[in-house]
Amino acid sequence: MSDAAATLKSLPQSGGFNNSPLAQWVKANLFPNWWSTVITLVLTYFILKFLFGALSWSLFNAVWSIEGTDTEVCRELKGIGACWALIAEKHRFILFGTYPFQEHWRPALVIVVFLVLYGLSTVRALWNYWLGVVWAAGLLSIGILMWGGVFGLRFVEQERWGGLPITLMLATFGIALAFPLGILLALGRRSDMPAIKAICVAYIELIRGVPLISLLFMASVMLPLFLPEGLTIDKLLRAQIAIILFAAAYLAEVVRGGLQAIPKGQYEAADALGLSYWKKTGFIVLPQALKIVIPPLVNTFIGLFKDTSLVLIIGIYDLLNAAKTSTIEPKWQGFSIEAYVFVSIIYFVFCFAMSKYSQKIEAELSHTHKR
Amino acid sequence: MASIPRSRPAPPSIKLSLSDPVVRAIVFQVLVVGGVALLVWYLVSNTMANMEARKIASGFGFLNREAGFAISEHSIDYSPADSYFRALVVGVLNTLIVAILGIVLATILGTIIGIGRLAKNWLISQICSVYIEVMRNLPLALQLVFWYYAVILENLPSAREAHNPLPGVFVSSRGIMVPVPANDPTYGWMLIACLIGIVGTVLLSRWAKARQAATGQQFPMLRAAAGLILGLPLLAWLAGGAPTALDWPELRGFNFQGGGTLTPEFAALLIGLVTYTAAFVAEIVRSGILAVSHGQTEASSALGLKRGLTLRLVILPQALRVIIPPMISQYLNITKNSSLAVLIGYPDLVSIANTTLNQTGQAIEGIGIIMMVYLTVSLSIAAFGNWYNKRIALTER
Amino acid sequence: MSATATAADSRPMIELRNVNKWYGEFHVLRDINLTVERGQKIVVCGPSGSGKSTMIRCINRLEEHQQGHIIVEGTELTGDLRNIDTVRREVGMVFQQFNLFPHLTVLENLTLAPIWVRKMPKKEAEEMAMYFLGRVKIPEQVHKYPGQLSGGQQQRVAIARSLCMKPKIMLFDEPTSALDPEMVKEVLDVMIELAREGMTMVCVTHEMGFARAVADSVIFMDKGEIVESAPPTEFFANPKSDRTKLFLSQILGH
After folding, report:
1. Fewest C-beta in 10 Å: which of B228, B314, B389, C253?
2. Lowest mean pLDDT among A59-73, B123-137, C50-64, C91-105
3. Contact at 8 Å (CB) between C94 and C158?
4. Residue B262, beta-bridge partner list
């Protein structure tokens, strides 16, 4: 940064504002030379204009609620002010789908349980056997809350589930159940046995080569044909199966990267001590491999979380689909932007938090490896 | 002492016992393959029974039947009287058009943003950073429906009140209309001239390299290439009478006629795919540039190489090594993500195959066709990527 | 030097008879003949690429030989997995790169194999681990992770880890080559003490001081063959082959 150094040298040596660290930083990063100065000024103008426009649309001129069913007020302000009244009226539908109104506390609680589970899992100090137990208990309680039928809770059939809990469930169960399959596929792909390797390679390349949409179609349309007469599985389960099979192939490649990164000496030391293949894999290889690949694992989970939005293609009311259908009613037609901004915030918060966590873990791992 | 054997002996014979690793491996594989085969047989027999019961036809004979549905955008001639096969071909072409355009535009936009992220001006780098974070953390499906429904359908004016930013260019909720050059045989000749120019450039560069190796003289290859690839078509254009006729879009009734049209569906899909993927490309480019250590630039300057040569001979080859594999991955992703077209009604392969399988009831064949096409494209791109990686891999001890 | 076993005590611990190994077309071990009696310490030296590491790695089947016989304590090493398991339980190995398990504490590194392979109860395994950690003189490191230890400490933990399996034979594959010079002595001291207590050892190393101190026999290998083999005093004073002389001049010169 010789520009900055030259700038610093040219500043007067007296004290005062011009010498403060802030002024120096501003000079170096925003106005180092005339060309950059021009860009800064032009950009600042546009950014301020954009910010002002966005703020006036979303805050100053916005309509926050309406009387009865009259949306004329909103329509008059279309393009000038946001119609947050849509969210005020429809937020329950977007978040929970067609779940019975009085029971909304149940999916809301489910969302809280998910958040708690995710939060606990990020604390390294808690990474032990008990976390697995907590997860199992958490997932069980989610099932009980959503279905009901026991403990005096009213039974709610799966067709009425919708919104954010569906998104969370599809993503979480997807990754959790895909994990063991993915690990087996990764181990199989590195095996010396040709038949095992061929099956694993074929599965992984086939699933990774086709879009998720085609797998969702396959599950939705073909799964009923695969099952014997009389046995049916509902739409949500079909989507879940497709997502699990999809995630397993991507997880397999991530785990395989970790397996390749383990130095050969670890395998040899385990062999020299007389450990069998499964003991060697379970005690020595996998713990190290999985720890190495936590950042790409989290990234895969973020991708899966976003991909759950595709289930709208088979008619499942996840968060995105619920937002989309919230503006179908004639009186609310034309206000899609407000609905999408609402769910964008939700998606963004989840994904951004996870990606920041992944970056933090990556930084930690690279520190410990340097000793 | 026995004499040292000359060549490697044959491997020992197998003893039939489970503690022989060869026997163990065979037994294990037989069990696994057998298990998988059993599962497959179970699913297939169920499927055949179910299809029988529901009177679903099977086989690919339906491909020759009349399709009976219209397709809103087709690059080759198509009418509802054409066969399902032709309809699917239209779908494949639509997918490829969107994928190729998407790849090109996303690469350009992503490279600009990636370099912007590394700019010294804090505002530029922050804006690029915000762009990348927002685009990567929102689902592509959400972005597509946003562009299509929220922006184009709901917030652009109707054709009669279309925006007119440039003469002949109209932006409305019916799409983007642009004037296109009117049909003229000269353009065919220009294309041929361009191809000749490319071939000529390749041959010329070979000759120039050989000459540099032999005599040390450098040849202004860049200018020569520009001359051939741009100049020859220009000559063809002049020779053809310099046609300048344009086909202008004109408002007739509720919509425009003539000119070229970018439908709302195509525009939304392309914009969504490009803006989304550009964010990932930006990160790839940025990490590629950062991967080349500063010492390389210093060493290169110390040798007296000027900035342009340093970039071309030292920095870029090393950066590309890091960039190309994940970039290929992104290209694959764009191709697969183009299947989201079915969400907004663009008639890509998935969309048309979906209509086909709904009409004929032959779900298995329909989905099989979708997967076959994508698999072929994916495996080709991946094979190309592997070949390229092997070719440029650094030889290490 | 043939093996006639009447009582188990007089049977050689390790026997290599006409062992040949190829990597593809490359003949890496040429007709190796070697016998190691109980309590003997053999030092193997030679230029890099001579096959010395390959040879000792064949003894616990980390590498496979294609021709000849390798017999460890009466068990012949063939493809039979039971034999391989038997041999690996009795033979301990110390690697140049230590190869400690970084995700386990020192204690867990030591007790893993005894618990899971010898099926020892946990308490017993931990007591034994503490004993051997004391033998290598770093008992206070018991709950640390390998990444927190110096190279010399890690290698001593690696030795202790092998000792916890109570092996009859210890193989050392250039144990001090990856260490900073000031840490070489602490590891060699442990190895010397082990030797003086009667352990059967085969050691690939360039540390000639160690060879002079404890070796019963020094073997020089070059290009896959055993060129010369003699007790240390004779080996260093009167090398017979020209190749041996050249090698000794290169490593003893400085």
Report:
1. C253
2. A59-73
3. yes
4. B176
Taking the alpha carbons at both ends of chain C, their separation in whole angstroms is 36
Please give the distance of CA A248 from its chain centroid, rounded to a whole number.
16
pLDDT tens per residue across span C110-165: 998 888 888 889 899 999 999 999 999 999 999 999 889 999 999 999 999 999 99
Q: Residue B124: which CATH number?
A: 1.10.3720.10
Both B229 and B373 in a single domain? Answer: no
- Rounded to whole angstroms, the Cα distance separating B186 from B318 reads 42
Burial of A185 (C-beta count, 10 Å sphere; 0-12/13-18/19+): buried
- Which two structure tokens, joined as six digits, stand for A276? 């069998």
Residue B19 belongs to a domain? no
Closest CA to A236 of A177, A163, A185, A311: A311
Residues B290 and B369 in one domain: yes
Number of structural domains found in chain B: 2
Same domain, B149 and B272: yes
Q: Does B328 reside within a domain?
A: yes
Rounded to two decimals, the ipTM of the complex is: 0.83
Please state, in angstroms and rounded to a whole number, the distance separating the CA atoms of residues A346 and A342: 7
Please give the interface size between A and B, counted as residue pairs whose CB atoms are below 8 Å apart. Answer: 157
Mean residue pLDDT across chain A:
85
Pick from A73, A161, A78, A52: nearest CA to A336: A78
**Could you count the other beta carbons within 10 Å of the beta carbon of residue A8?**
13
Cα–Cα distance, B304 to B310 (Å, whole number): 9
Check CB contact of A128 with chain C, cutoff 8 Å: no
Per-residue pLDDT tens over the stretch B51-105 = 888 777 778 888 888 888 888 888 788 888 888 888 899 999 999 999 999 999 9
pTM of the full predicted structure? 0.80
pLDDT band at A368 (very low <50, low <70, confident <90, very high): low
Residue B141 sits in the same domain as residue B275 = yes
Nearest-by-CA chain B residue for A341: B146
CA C164, CA A73: separation in Å to the nearest integer? 82
Q: What are A211's two structure tokens?
A: 């879009």
At C5, list the tokens. Answer: 């076993």
Structure tokens at B150: 């929220």
Question: Does residue B41 sit within a domain?
Answer: no
Structural domain that includes position B137: 84-159+263-392
Q: Please give the full DSSP string across B228-255, using - where no structure is assigned.
A: IIIIHHHHHHHHTT----EE--EEETTE
**Residue A279: closest CA among chain C residues belongs to which residue?**
C116
**Three-state SS for C29?**
strand
Q: How does residue A246 score in pLDDT terms, banded at 50, 70 and 90?
A: very high
Q: Is the pLDDT of residue A1 over 60?
A: no
Note whether C221 and C244 are within 8 A (CB): no
- Kindly state the tokens that stand for A284: 């020595």
Give residue-wise pLDDT tens across range B215-246.
Answer: 777 788 888 888 888 888 888 888 877 777 77
Q: Is the dihedral of CA A283, A288, A291, A297 positive or negative?
A: negative
- In terms of Cα–Cα distance, which of B267, B282, B274, B269 is closest to B127? B282
Query: Which range has the worst mean pLDDT, B223-227, B241-245, B284-288, C103-107?
Result: B241-245
Residues B376 and B344 in one domain: yes
Tell me if B123 and A40 make a contact (CB, 8 A cut-off).
Answer: yes
Residue A214 pairs in a beta bridge with none
CB contact under 8 A, B120 and A1: yes
The CA distance from A326 to A87, in Å, is 9
Same domain, residue pair B236 and B290: no
B73 within a domain of the structure (yes/no): no
Q: C95 with C172: CB under 8 angstroms?
A: no
For residue C39, the model assigns a pLDDT of 93
Of C88, C97, C147, the CB nearest to A274: C88
Is B1 in CB contact (< 8 Å) with chain C? yes
Which one is predicted more confidently, C6 or B379? Answer: B379
